[in-house]
Design a protein that fits this description.
Blueprint: E1 8-13, E2 16-17, E3 23-27, E4 30-34, E5 42-47, E6 53-60, H1 86-102, E7 111-116, E8 127-130, E9 143-144, E10 157-158, H2 168-183, E11 188-195, E12 204-210, H3 220-229, E13 234-238, E14 244-249, E15 252-257, E16 266-269, H4 281-292, E17 299-303, H5 311-316, E18 320-325, H6 328-340, E19 347-351, H7 354-357, E20 367-370, H8 380-387, E21 391-396, H9 399-411, E22 414-422, E23 432-439
Parallel strand pairs: 7-22, 12-13, 17-18, 17-20, 18-19, 20-21
Antiparallel strand pairs: 1-5, 2-3, 3-4, 5-6, 8-11, 9-10, 11-12, 13-14, 15-16, 21-23, 22-23
Helix pairs in contact: 1-9
Length: 444
Amino acid sequence: MKDTKTVKKIVSIVEGLALNGRAFINADGCELWLNGFLPGDKIEVGLNEKGHIVEAELLEASPNRVKPDCFYHGPCGGCDLLELSEKARKKEKQKMIDRALSGITDGHKAKVHSFMGSREIIHYMPRVRLHQSRSYEERASGFLASEAFAGKVPGGVVPVTSCALLMPTLSRRLVAARKILDQVPIFLESLNLMSSSSLQADRVVGHAVLMKGKSTGPFYKDLVKIMRSANLKGLTVASADGKIKEVLEIPTVTGLIAPDVDGGPYESEASFFVQGNICQNPLLVRKVVEFCSPEEGKRIVEGFAGAGNFTLALGAAGAKVEAVESHPGAVRAGIKNIHKGGLSGRVSLVEGDAIKMLPEFEPNPDVLLLDPPRTGTPGIGRILSKLAPKKVVCVFCDLESAVKDTNAMIRAGYRFTDVQGIDLYPRTHHVEMVVLMSRVEKQV
């Protein structure tokens, strides 16, 4: 049983956000994390005998707090920094990058490029995920409720009617998609909607994931109803294990993969991940290309390649690219994109587990490019010892993983040279961190 008895109370100012996005204070030389507060808040916390926080109260709001402009803020939980002013949010994210660097060996020696804040803080997201209510008594489909509200919201979902982050094309589908999800049987784990990057086009496609034990047969008519009611141009349907079981019409959109790269616009589907900011992704691609320095004859090995967001840009710049990606749908789309861009002789993409396959590639490439999931790249030291690239470029979407993996690369004989912070998800604590590492040549 947890000790929830308060034995000591202290008053403190929230110093900032930890790498995991939680607010932190310092008490008796220890950093303590807590949820629901923002940098600059004056709070009173109660500690138990072990020094853990068991209660917290806001005494005085941070001067950087603003009134949230979303009715669903709190139960939704998507924009966890919505009550922090935009100016303060950008500053705090820059500080989070600095905190990450302080946890990396010789991190202070790296060249820190100017933080790339987002030009747009609304209407930037081309994808959204909806969930059906799990209760027939409370039919209100929408976004999954935040952890703090999960047991308080009927059906476990927040019945949103609008979301400022979504592109207009998705916003126009939101209510219609929710309405039909409330009318058909409860059989979906989730419904992903994705639009093209064009603000003029009105093309949206979907990807439905069935609940465990459900099959497409009994629900085929319901899937068609969802598609028609939400005006989707195409729909893929997957079983609970992720395997595609049904494809309705043409489930592709353009412009989200390798934007502004010659040969496009390139295709993607709602069944696999794409970067979630149509304004910032072009900047991210350009920064990765800059760090990789592609040119004719240069060899780049890429892990976690997706459908070619960076792959196509590097190939178009003249480099020879050998890429690996685990998601079969992303590989299928990526290969199609490679052919469309006329890069078949220069760029290759294979399906497989990057962590297992990268050590088997021909060693000594000019660059190893990695865009891992939030968990980072387990075994990165072994990959580097086998592959021995001259440089490594990593795109991290989790700062804790960035610190862990970068330190592992340093231990494997690489020097941390450059870092770029990018804000891909305004109004949230998430920060993208791109790092450049160079192999330390042994003295003869």
